[in-house]
């Protein structure tokens, strides 16, 4: 079975607010996915439904080929690390790690111990006395050492500095290379993680906006800049994703490959062409004010 | 050589270019072993599948070849092939662009030749 | 079984909530009463023992917000969470009931700590034999835990609005009962019924109530979200 997750027309509404609207996608085994989008786009809600922590309003959801709700065969293969994970007040770091070793069948104790040293965590300290960054480190350690066939990190690095985040990416790639598994990274720090990703799903306003191989997305958009009239004549008939006027000048973002003919035309019109990075592309696509934002009443 | 990966182009192409650079500049001699996809992945902090795609691109072009159970190696004659390819790219990337820019500035072909001589002397 | 065992382990790691805090509360209540007994010099009967029973009720309420979101996020099934938590409460109730019996015996053996303080060994509660006393302690502790647990699960599933509605419903039910009792003049019968009850007999009446709380909380927890 190659599909770890299959989601079809998945919807979650609260009263007349639709948080997730008819979302469909598949997650294949042993790939690293990026679930990207702005805060409040519905990413966390989708992941909560995949892990049976929230109930879908409608739609079909299969994880490891089965319904995840109250299904220990499915749940024991999942590790979901979220930004604001709550722990019992009296729990120490050690309590969390020890319990995790019983809860996750693939738990690697040695790896967990190494990570504790890497992140310089005080084992005996209570969870609620940890700094924000240390708190996040505990989640990262559980997520990595659990080696769960489906591991989900939802904004796992609140309060972590750049060094600690780099350490996380380092350990993630190293361990993933040796122990491939399906990993979902949900984040808005796109530029930091995009290199790690094999496939990207962008959620915007509760809907799937992009579902594409990461390499296909890189170099799939470019921007043209020049005088407004020249730019307008160049972009006619093309898929324009952004327009930024600046005095008599105009910069436009365009998706699609640049043909040799396009390049010549741009030269003739004296236009400057530059590639759009993955981060910029997603920012431009999700930055638009769309009608679906916030969920329109039906 | 820069470690920074540019996010506006496919990474596997950039990985292939890095390996090509290493072969051209002699850091990876012919018949030497190329790092594994996992080593590339850790070093550049990229997805191993992407690294593999970059390596496989060069395998398809006959620049690298696979020894079963051992790894990837630089093919004999790979350097010469790459240098030829790069010369062609050089013409496209630098000469053609230079001519275009020269035209804009009204630099004649003779003046350009003179400039290249001066550049050589530096 | 292993999965329920994991939930047991989860609760066992929280020794503060299940062991240290309840006996600290009980202990400090006892010490204060003992000092008062010494100073006053007269034999006193105190309700300080209630503190550990009340704590069981509080524990029932707080155990859900403390551990449910954590357990569910760490891939525990709701059913296993419920079974493990209930099992742990029963074990804890049994353990506490035995400790209370022991303390009661010690109190009697030391001639009420030499001061006449009746803290653990109280009339009515110690009327029956040792097994009956154990069952009373155990069922009372369990009833209070399940009562809190049911309230906690209403809050878990329906949040504040659920608790509000529940409170209103309870008030309404009590009022109707009162009106009924007064209008039908049942006071004497009810009073007599209670007078005739032993502690043990009373605790057996707790069983159906515990069962109702258990069913309600199970149904709610199965549908609760993080």
TrEMBL record, chain B:
Keywords carried by this UniProt record: DNA-binding, Transcription, Transcription regulation
UniProt name for this protein: GntR family transcriptional regulator
InterPro entries: Tscrpt_reg_HTH_GntR (IPR000524), WH-like_DNA-bd_sf (IPR036388), WH_DNA-bd_sf (IPR036390)
Record's keyword annotation contains DNA-binding: yes
Domain annotation HTH gntR-type: ranges: 9-77
Highest taxon, organism lineage: Bacteria
Classification via Pfam families: GntR (PF00392)
Family matches, as SMART domains: HTH_GNTR (SM00345)
Record's keyword annotation contains DNA-binding: yes
